[in-house]
Amino acid sequence: MQILGTALLSLCVVTGLVVGRLAGAAFGLDSDLGGVGLAMILLILATDALRRRGLLTAATEGGVAFWGQIYVPIVVAMAASQNVRGALQGGWMAAFAGLAAVATAFLVMRLFGRGKDGP
Asked: What does pTM read for this prediction?
């Protein structure tokens, strides 16, 4: 049933948000620290475990897919707007951290692309 897929997604989201809040509190932050990402990892692990055991029906998988198509883009957009707002308020250190992450990503991609013919 699709409702079981929705229940599975809800369980993963609630667990991820609670753990994210606890992680944030452990670091002295008044925010969620990776809860949404943890929720998505839990969802992937749970659906994979159910699929391997033959317990994931097509209707349940449809429920997970339906909410995944709606929920994930909304959460990513919300997180992105919070990150931009925090970076603008964070000043030079936030700008430096963002630029360093982008530069590192470019360097790593350049290393992975060596020796391959490309456009």
From this structure: 0.59
